[in-house]
Known about the structure:
Two copies of one chain form a homodimer.
Chain A: E1 10-14, H1 18-28, E2 33-38, E3 42-44, H2 49-53, E4 63-65, H3 66-70, E5 76-80, E6 83-87, E7 92-95, E8 98-101, E9 104-107, E10 111-113, H4 119-124, H5 131-149, H6 154-160, E11 162-166, H7 170-186, E12 200-204, H8 216-228, E13 231-234, E14 239-242, E15 246-249, E16 254-256, E17 259-262, E18 266-268, E19 285-286, E20 292-293, E21 296-301, E22 306-307, E23 309-310, E24 313-314, H9 319-338, E25 352-357, E26 360-365, E27 368-371, H10 373-386, H11 390-406
Parallel strand pairs in A: 1-2, 1-9, 2-5, 9-21, 11-12, 11-17, 12-13, 19-22
Antiparallel strand pairs in A: 3-4, 6-7, 7-8, 10-18, 14-15, 15-16, 20-21, 23-24, 25-26, 26-27
Amino acid sequence: MENKTKASPHVVVVGGGFGGIRASLALAKLGVKITLVDRYNYHLFQPLLYQVATAGLSVDDIAYPIRAIVKQKKNIDFRLAEVTGVDFGSKTVTMNTGTIGYDYLVVAAGGMTNYFGMESVEKHSFGMKTLDESVIIRNHILSMFELAAHEKDADKRRALLTFVIVGGGPTGVESAGALAELAYHVLTKEYHHVNFKEVRIVLVEASDKLLAAMPESLREVTVETLINKRVEVRMCIQVTDYDGERLTLKGGEVIPTNTVVWAAGARAIHLIDKLGVEQASMRRAVVNEHLQIPNHSEVFVIGDAAHFMQDERPLPMIAPVAIQQADIVAKNIGNLIKGKELKKFVYKDVGSMATIGRNAAVVHMGSFKTHGFFAWAIWCFVHILRLIDFRNRAVVFSKWVWDYLVYERVVRIITRK
Amino acid sequence: MENKTKASPHVVVVGGGFGGIRASLALAKLGVKITLVDRYNYHLFQPLLYQVATAGLSVDDIAYPIRAIVKQKKNIDFRLAEVTGVDFGSKTVTMNTGTIGYDYLVVAAGGMTNYFGMESVEKHSFGMKTLDESVIIRNHILSMFELAAHEKDADKRRALLTFVIVGGGPTGVESAGALAELAYHVLTKEYHHVNFKEVRIVLVEASDKLLAAMPESLREVTVETLINKRVEVRMCIQVTDYDGERLTLKGGEVIPTNTVVWAAGARAIHLIDKLGVEQASMRRAVVNEHLQIPNHSEVFVIGDAAHFMQDERPLPMIAPVAIQQADIVAKNIGNLIKGKELKKFVYKDVGSMATIGRNAAVVHMGSFKTHGFFAWAIWCFVHILRLIDFRNRAVVFSKWVWDYLVYERVVRIITRK
């Protein structure tokens, strides 16, 4: 084989999320040289970010050092750096700390919060896509209760105690449920000077559906469960503006609030805008059936950053898509090296699930659907299993059991003034 | 009793550390009204701060919400605020969020890092008295390894990999030991591009003693153990300057380093300077035998903030002193209310202990002294027991067992850019 006599090819993987880690580990088996670049030194288990924001888990429960994940693979080199651009001509990646060349490139750089061009909302509301953002939300929510406990002005107090979450997808639904439990089961025991009748938790969704990917029966269960947890569910209404004190809805309704969490949408990360490639909805890079950028057969894009049509719809921005695409990309890079035919990507739907709080979740897999305690147990089991390491699993499991038994949330500390 | 017909007295406790929490809980039993003020919303288990700085524990393992501690006591009101002054005449405490009056005041505001007037050192080195400071140290140490992994300039690389800890007290010794284990047992497996022969961990102490409160035999064991862990122990030498790149020692020796952790001293917190009371060494407030400020019998100072002479020496700034003083102060406030005679404070020495790493600690209690594995087991047991809540105990215990078995440190994430 002629390849054996050449230096082994160098693959650069941009992003240490679900797609990037999976691709790097799969590529490592091919014997190629891999450089994995991420702007953070940890892999983040994004599906549980909302539990950090609502004081259920701590930062390191869902963040795992990338070097620890790849330490067994001597052919993976990790670089802590932010990628600022790619030159397809010279095959180099530009980072804030220098440049590196590549033979093959895998862009798994992920997504970010989409404010749909609403600058005032972007400036005043909280996004929840990064670990730092989740901690900021936790600090903010707890600070609102501290301020409210000694606020004499009733108008100011109500605004402090009104929490609005925008977006009825999994992040919005899970956050609203977790926040309601934090307020009504945990904080109510400790803020003796707060009248919890003044607390409002509002979930705003523009369409008439919560968890739109779910079948109708489960969507209905979701709405009912949230209402039972004292979340005000507002559907069929759009947010038009937020100035930090007043949230304005379409038609002129105003909600005075100091807290708006924006979970209404995601888009591909800014890096994709800088590549000069064709972009589709949500600024995602259009890829071909082999997940390559058209005209650059050595460049692959996967996960949230990639626009891949299947059954006439773009695939959603979820971890299973990124993971399945990572496997195909690793195979296809192997095939390119060996001169073999490339594999086409087809996404196999693994279903979806969301938790709404204690004993309450909705699960949909193929024709199987369930809700309530059993769904909640499945949700817990699946998420524990997916955590990357035995220790994180054990700690998260013990925290969940503890919270369940004693209605607690221990991570209620306000850091970073 | 005439007091029964009056409104119950109001006690303000400043500080939610070991002294302030203990005093508040003891006072709560007297039936008085208590306002507990702290600038953080959590009680911090300071003896384990160094484990946060060296990636062994996470922030919320050693920080516990104050409201959760006092939630059973309806007569304790917590306020998240920074105390900026006290007016003894009008009996009011000024905070950044307003003022409150008091009948009795307990100042348990603690200590802070003492740079002994060396401004350049204060500006460029890291203190380790607060949770935020510990996280900053952790982020910094891990970042140094990330930068060193791709630094071509050998001089810059050595400065990145040189870590100097100043101060041979428990904090300095425990930090040096923990950092050596982090570097040589954990990071060495993951930074394939770092030559660990270039790593230096230096402990600098001005006197000829490490752990000066320990008997000589244990001090010797401490030095030997650190040297065996590849810590360079430098005694009898003072730091004179640090500009962020070059640490200068007395006599002109220069150590190029990007990391200096300053654990060389503590002093009473700035608030004490603003009270207009007599201050002694380390700026601590002089108190009488009943722990009162002279001429203000309703004002008590305890813990690191108080200067109390016993056996011709001021009591050290350690938790057992604060805790024992808190008990006496609560009794004395009760006695003042009832018109009874006040109790004198006498500190009962509970001994001291420090851990230097795996299987290595020194323990000294009365005439009992031991070191090695048995001392280390005692240290672990005592520190687990002292943690405030069963869940924290269980989580910390499981992390220690895990780290012990697999030589790991999972909290190696760099947060906050």
